[in-house]
Amino acid sequence: STIELQDLVQLGKIGSGNSGTVLKTLHVPDSRIIAKKSIPVENKPLIKNQLIRELTIMQNVKTHENIVGFFGAFYTASTTNEIVILMEYMDCGSLDKIMSTYKSFVKRGSPDASENWFNELVLAKISFAVLNGLSYLYRDYKIIHRDIKPSNVLINSKGYVKICDFGVSKKLINSIADTFVGTSTYMSPERIQGSVYSTKGDVWSLGLMIVELVTGEFPLGGHSDTPEGILDLLQRIVNEPPPRLRQSPQHSREMVDFVNRCCVKDEQERSSLQELLCHDFVEKGRSQGDREFRHWCKRIKKRLKEDKMLQREENERAKLVK
Ligand code: ADP
Ligand code: MG
């Protein structure tokens, strides 16, 4: 069942990143919600053709429980030059969104934020899902993700964790927009230094992401969006010791060991996807706490809604004051 653009009605904006904008849409013929991502592209045949070729690779990826469903890609040549990607809508959003919602609950002093929402069961579920998705993409399609970060890990209220935005090469993305601006970078040291990129680069990114979810901060320190600030961060990734987690009453030995195997600067010494899939922490994420996790996802969805409402009220009030 292919979806046609003309059958989609826009319901609202979900978010926008470096490369484009994501809208929440309704597919009218079967009343299904679909996420529609638009990426403006330069009107150069070479870039367009390559992009379309890469998108057809995505089209061939068969459904997997840890990969966001793909419903098609279009190139709209009419008034605007853009690539449109249709994908499964994930109703609990991305990890960065959940993280910022948690922070706004903390700021409001909500009792709901008395402890970090990203407890170890949740982190184990996320770790397993990301590794399992990555290993599927590589095993069956030789696709390396290359852009694992909180905004590319999505959750839905049925209790699924899925990765999205893989496969499109960075060279092309760079031709679309400056990828560094506005994001913390999850790139591995070897990638920054221009070595061959393997799936272990994604392992590094996953490690950083888990540390960020545990501590609430991007582990390698912030950076300003100036070229100097970005260069400074890249230099820190290459030259400074990697982030570590220390064992404590809050952090189990298994989780600390898992993270510290991901955050290894030397690619050779870093664990592989397959090794990590056998790790105790990840095994826990695979086999335990399904009911509890589903419950967690439902709760997250409620909290996202609540946060959105409160934010709207705040905006209204601010307008009245003016
Ligand atoms: P980035 O990943 O760099 O933030 P994107 O354009 O890929 O930029 O996505 C923008 C935002 O839209 C993401 O941060 C995420 O919160 C949200 N998003 C993307 N895809 C989906 C989806 N399929 N379902 C729900 N939310 C999504
Ligand atoms: Mg994204």
UniProtKB/TrEMBL annotation:
It comes from the Eukaryota. This is mitogen-activated protein kinase kinase. ATP binds at K37. One of its GO terms (biological process) is signal transduction involved in filamentous growth. One of its GO terms (molecular function) is protein serine/threonine kinase activity. Belongs to the protein kinase superfamily. STE Ser/Thr protein kinase family. MAP kinase kinase subfamily. The chain holds residues 107 to 428 of 444 of the full protein. Signal peptide: none annotated. It comes from Lachancea lanzarotensis.
